[in-house]
Amino acid sequence: MKRNHGVVLFVLFVGCSGPAPQPAVEPQPVHADGLHNVFRLSDRLLSGSSPDGDAGFAALQHLGVKTIVSVDGAVPDVAAAERHGMRYVHLPVGYDGIPRERAVALAKAVRDLPGPVYLHCHHGKHRGPAAAAVVQLCLDPAWTPERAEQWMKAAGTDPKYTGLMSLPTKLAKPTAAELDAAIGDFPQKAEVPDLTRLMVAVDERWDHLKLAKDAGWKQPPGHPDLDPPHEAVQLAELYREAARLSAVKARGPDLLMHFSEAETAANELAAALRQPNAEAARKAFGRVQASCTACHTAHRDRPTR
Ligand code: HEC
Questions:
Q1: Which residues, including other chains, have CB under 8 Å from residue 247's CB and lie 6 or more apart?
Q2: What angle do CA 87, 88, 89 make, to 5 degrees?
Q3: pLDDT (mean) for 149-156
């Protein structure tokens, strides 16, 4: 009896004095096959890239991860996660910032779902680290806005994403009660807007074209189904489809102008690859690339409201 009493008193004492202040520990880089830009932020949270196929999911399982949170627009590979004993949560965000409600949902998911949690975007550099910063600010009192900014810089977040970079200073932290009250029914696959879905497809075509470029405009080794001119034709088609979306038309003529320029550049690349003419392909590739950046700068990367 006496001993039990002592234990209770000890617990009360620790409870009242609070945890001893811990020195801020830098997020630790983690190297694993099939994953890129991985950092451990706490016992509960890792940040990194989207897993590369089975090797990536196996690496996560090996790291003990139980829940994967994606903030990317791409459809999560829920089946692969399940095969490796993990569950997906899909809470996509844009490059222009994270609305507070989404920040609260992310924090709740990381707080309440089985951990460790792996939080990822596509490359693990911009949206993912920004989301991880917001989660840490919501959940860990030792995280100050300065520390969150330092973490984003260390993760490689590009300062041009002003809506992401300003999150740490702008965030109004939720209380524990607000987190308790938030909806905890997280989707494994979220509904994403048509434009986001098309952009994920654009990005995939673009990755294929980059592989073709590295292979001297020939079919890249290890990709027997990849036909470079066809990839460029598909890219042009995706732009045409995007320009027909009512949500895109509603955003005004400048966005449509960018889509038309991008489509012309993609068609030029397709023609050069069909000839084939390496010099013309190199030029057209540059024009396509410039059209991605020009449109994103005007219509994606910064808050517009
Ligand atoms: C004409 C404009 C335009 C062009 C050209 C364009 N994009 Fe986009 N892109 C956007 C917009 C707008 C968004 C944000 C969509 C949204 O609201 O989710 C976006 C989003 C994206 C995303 C994020 C998807 C996600 O996970 O949420 C990726 C990746 C992307 N674009 C890649 C590319 C690449 C690569 C190219 C060039 C090969 C390209 N885009 C060309 C307008 C464009």
A1: 193, 194, 195
A2: 125
A3: 96
Mutation to probe ligand 1, out of 49, 121, 202 (largest number of atoms < 8 A from CB): 202
Q: Give the separation between CA 297 and CA 288, rounded to whole angstroms.
A: 14
Q: Report pLDDT digits (tens) over 45-73.
A: 999 999 999 999 999 999 999 999 999 99
The token duo for 38 is 């991985």
Quote the pLDDT of residue 22: 52
Q: What residues are in contact with ligand 1 under a 6 Å CB criterion?
A: 72-74, 92, 94, 193, 195-196, 199-200, 202-203, 206, 255, 258-259, 262, 288, 291-292, 295-296, 299-300
Q: What was the pLDDT predicted at 164?
A: 97
| Number of the ligand 1 atom closest to the C-alpha atom of 195 | 15
**Does residue 251 register a pLDDT over 60?**
yes
